[in-house]
Amino acid sequence: MSADDQTRRGTTARALPRWVVLAAVVAVASTACQADQVGAPTTASSTQPDVPAVAAKVLSGRCAGGWVVPDASAPVPLTDPATPPGGAVQADQGLVVVTVQGHDRAQVVVEGMKVDIVARRPAVVGALLPTPCETDDDGPSRVFGVDLNDDTPVPTGRYDDDGRETGYPYKVTAVERGEIRLVPSVATDDVEWRLRLLWTSDGRQGETVVDDGGAPFHTTGTTAVTGALCPDVAQGAWVDPTTSTTCATKLSSATDAGLVGRWVRKTQELAVAPDGTVTLSDREGDKTRGLTLRILSVVGTTATADVVRADHDLVRVGDRYTLTRSETELVVEGAFLDGVWCSPTTDYPAGCST
C-alpha cells in the first residue's frame, strides 16, 4: 500500500480487519456535563453508566451485497450472514446492524448519525459471494442508506414496507431497545469507515463511536471482481454457477449486460455508468429533477437497482427497480420510471416518442 493511501485524510489505514460479530455490548459515557454541553465522543473502551449501550454486527446484506474474497475457488461453505469466509470483505449493499439500548434512569433519543472515512483505496479484486435471500433475519428496525462514495457521507433514512420514512428522532429505553440497519453503497472504492451515533438523554448530549470491535467497518465496491460464485442453499455452499441447476449466473458488471450508455424517453434521460451508477434527469418546463440508483446485481440482461438519491417528489430513497436490455431498448419497471427507454442513436419506437 502506498504512503498516500495510508495517510488519506490524515488517518493511517489499518490492515484488512477480521470480519467478526461485535458480540460484546459496550456501555460508554462522557463525564457529567451541563445540559448545554456536548460530551466528547466515547468509544468501546468506556465503562461509564447512564448512556446508551451499543452493539454492532456486520452482515452480508439482504438479497444483495455479499462478500468479496481475494482468493476463492468453488465450492465455498455457505455460512450464516454474520460469519463470512476467511479474508472476506463486505460487498457494496451489505448490512451493518447497530443495536441501541437505553439505561435505567431515562430514555435515550438517537438524534442523528455521522460517518468518518478512515481509508479509501481501489475496490478489492477477488470473487464475489452474493447473499442468498433466505439468510436475512428481517425484523423491526430503522433502515438507513449511506453513500460511501461521498467524502462526507450522511446516513439517509429509507422507507419501510408501510411507506413510512425511517428517520430521527429515535427513542429507546432500557426495556425497549432499538435497531438501526445501515446499507452502505460504494462504487469503485474499498472504504474503511466508522459511525458516530449522536444522542441525548435526560438533558445531556453525547456521541458514541461505533465500529467493528475496535477496527473500522470495511466495505468494497464490486467493480473489480473477477467472477461470481452462486449461493446454493440446498448444497450449503457458494458454487460455480455453471455446475448448479438452481443458480442463475450473476454478471459482475453492467457493461457485460449491455446496459451501459445513454437512454432517452420523452423529456427524460437515463445514463448507466460502468460502475453500476444510474442517473436520471427529468425535465419539466424550466425545472430539472434527478435521481441516482445503484445496481445491486445483474442476471443475464436484467439488473436490479435501488434509488440512493432522489430529487423528485414521486421517488423515494430505497425504491427498487429493474432494468432489462432488449436490443436497442431498455425496459425499466418501477413506480415512476416504468416504461421503455431507447438508445438515442436509433429511431425511436412508439413507446419512446410518445
TrEMBL record:
It comes from the Bacteria. Residues 1-35 form the signal peptide. Keywords: Signal. This is Lipoprotein.
